[in-house]
Amino acid sequence: MTDTKLINLLKKFSPDEMRELEKYIASPYFSRSRDLNPFFKTLKQFYPDFSNEKLSVEYVFTSLYPGKSFEQVKSNNLIKTLSSEMFQMCKEFLIQYEFAKDKKRREYYLLNQLRKKKHSREFEKDLKKITDEDDFKNKGSVEYFIENYFFNTVCREYYLDNDDFKNTYESVLSSGEFIAVMALIKCLRNSDERTLADVYNLDTRYNLIDNLFNHLDITSLLNEMKKNNDRFYPYVYTYYLIHKLNTEKKKEIYYELKNYLNEHIDYFGKDELYILKSILLTFCSIVIAGTDRAQFQREQFEIYDGNLKLGIYKRSSEEDFHVVLFRNMALTSAVTGEFDWLEKFIVKYSPELPAEHRENMINFSNAMLFYFKNEFEKSLEYFSKIKLNLFFFKIDVRIFQLRIYYELNYFEQAYSLIDSTAHILTDTQEASELMSVSTKNFLKYYRQIFKLKQTKKTDKAELNLILKNISEEKILASRDWLVSKINDLNTG
Hints:
mainly alpha
């Protein structure tokens, strides 16, 4: 019974959710058929891992029906029925649990019910309160404009019911504006979705969103919005800059977007700021694979630091710290020499990582810390503790192990690791083209440089040729490190 769909779902519940679920099951309003309280209490003893061998169909049956004999078929079917009903109740609970947290959706439904009940005084009182608060966490997002569309729709119905045609017309216009802006933003954001698809090596297809945008005169539209001081202009222009950044990939557009976003930060809620800052970080990552590495690593660090201060390093307080984001923060802070910052970061934020990846990320972060402090043996010790259960670990760890092997003159280990890494990149479908090309190029130049170091003969012509090839390579992992090793050999 430890591997049923009910148990697998209950394993995912937090302690708070389990407490709320128990109240939900005990409520006569929600639990209108069979009383599942005893069944839940029996299962709850085995929370959170439900791995105790004692948890069996027979144990559950005898706990629920003491003194009754366990019959293989009949009793099994009864417990299966209870499990099925409990599983369905858990799903219903999750709907209610999510709805309870969705303040804006609840406000809409309340207003609509007050309108239908013709309780005008209470409707207008709640309408004023909602309007005054304007506390959309997702302000500026596609969802924000959809929510405002529904909000203005219920207002339209209310004013129409009360023969207030002026406000009815205004609500019609506002609801139309919100849905139109939502469509515009979705069109502009589609280039960002395509960029992410390219990073993950996904196929793209024809879609109506791009087709619609390609037939718009966006420049003329923005000029008209700006001239009329349109309240939606900062939103549309922000996403227009994102579109330009994704399609033109120019550094000057990055800085324009970054500065414009900082100037209009109050237009966006925390949820959407998280997304917008992630777009800036994605661009920095692309540039870092090129030639402006140091400049944009510092940009990345400043964005990460700012995100932590703003509390926008994850979508909500209930979610885990995303393992890839944590890795990027650790790596960037180590590369930029922010060692004190990194030490504090590991201590403060590692408890928020998913439990299954926490130890790996702590080891990885400490390996980064000691590597960039030139304590290579200690770094290698932490790298050796990492379980390579995520693909990016396989590449990250191998590249840094190769760099350490170079520093410590571990020739045999280095050549063995070069070959195994090349095989992984050839055999896997998990690596994006960007990651695959940049890593293969690194292995090529690493082998050439390490061979020259091993011979202990300085061939300046050959070193300069490698340096020239590296400078002309568009996509290359650890470019700065490779250049520094050539310079060391040239001056050695």
